[in-house]
Amino acid sequence: MNTEKLRQVFAIGETVAVEFKQCSKGIESDTYETVCSFLNRFGGDVFLGVDDDGFIRGLSAKAVPELISNFISMISNSDVISPTVYLSPEIIEYEGQTIVRIHVPQSSEVHRYKKIIYDRVNDSDVKVTATGQTAQMYIRKQRIFTEKKVYPYVTEADLRLDLLPRIRRMALNRNPNHEWENMDDLALLRSAGLYGDDKETGEKGYNLAAVMLLGKDDVIKAVSPAYRTDALLRKVNIDRYDDRIIVQTNLIESYDQLMMFAEKHLLDKFYIEGDSRTSLRGIISREILVNTLAHREFTSSYYAKFVIEKDRMYVENANRAVTGDTITPDNIEPESKNPKIAAFFRNIWLADELGSGTKRLYHYVPRYSGKNPEIIDGDVFRIIVPLDDDYSYEVGKNKAQIKRNLKRSDDCALIEEAILGYLSVNPRATQIEVASAINKSRRTVQDVIASLKNEGKLDREGAKKNGAWIVVE
After folding, report:
1. Were 470 and a residue from 130, 240, 262, 459 both cysteine, which residue would form a disulfide, CB within 3.0 to 4.6 Å?
2. Is 233 or 135 the better-scoring residue by pLDDT?
3. How far apart, in whole angstroms, are the C-alpha atoms of residue 147 and residue 84?
4. Where are the domains of the chain?
């Protein structure tokens, strides 16, 4: 704010979007009530060091840094403001006095100060206690998408336009007639909804979606200081980590870096779908990583995480919860948290239609680890994928078929088929393991294996202890 704008604000006085706080003895609880009410209504500015009537009292220049530090600590504490929020107070020298301006944006979530909801009515902060009022607030919030916030001073120079040729190729790989092929860069950005106008303020320019998808790193940090994804491997050193990367770049390259981390630390198990091999690791990683990148709440101070442990991996990110429930294919009600970003990912084929990700996870995760995933729609959104390095869907499927065959008949040919089928997938299995798998005695297995070797259908390579079986085609 320039001096003339500040003079007008102080002359008009407190409004639905302006609040003055004296703070001569530090920040008191009513300041946080105002922050909560601004978040829940239309946003606004809180000025510290100003009397209720607009008189500039000022603050001690020496005390201001500690005052700001205490304020940030309080709003980052979920016991104080829930969900937490990131705000950046601005120190202003005005007419020889030091004051602090705290700009509070309109939030897409319903916030509470010490478990109480506050709303802004005229120039007052009002407790919301009635069920009907609370319901109306949630209904109002459902129409807010923070990705649409316009930044009028962001220009093409602040964006990674060098990524657009690659983005066009990605779109054309799946749709050779995609409209982006013949558009210039600016037309593409407008077509994707990344340039728009704010109907309330009249401001025009690139929005938050544009900055997060294509912004340069320093621009992203300025617009969303708390944005980052912390990727951790915790298999041996579970108190800290075995490997770690911190990803704070645009969403397109963030996806690349996180996928590389997944490919580095997750097994790509053998799986056949139809007539071709399918990468379970790739499908599952893609679904959970695209979700945590595209559907997070970027105004929150909560860091997103991608963690790989011995028996599970999970992603979590700040969220504008809809149900608060565990999501399954039976109860899913798809709702995009960032529709412009989600649509961009769909255009470059990193995502499919809303709701399809849940169905794909419930289809492929049991084939990867033998168990279902867990998807939790809370203030922190979580997807938990069980891991089991020893599990093999193909072996389990083969074993089940073997047992079905042998249950129908004890014919020697079926036993031979069962043993050959099992050893083709498990060449280092012992005879005891084979006997257990096909539900036959060890003696029977020994006799049949000896017969198969004599017939040239089975061979042995290496030492008795560390060797492997070779099924002769």
Report:
1. 459
2. 233
3. 18
4. 3-130, 150-222, 229-386, 394-471
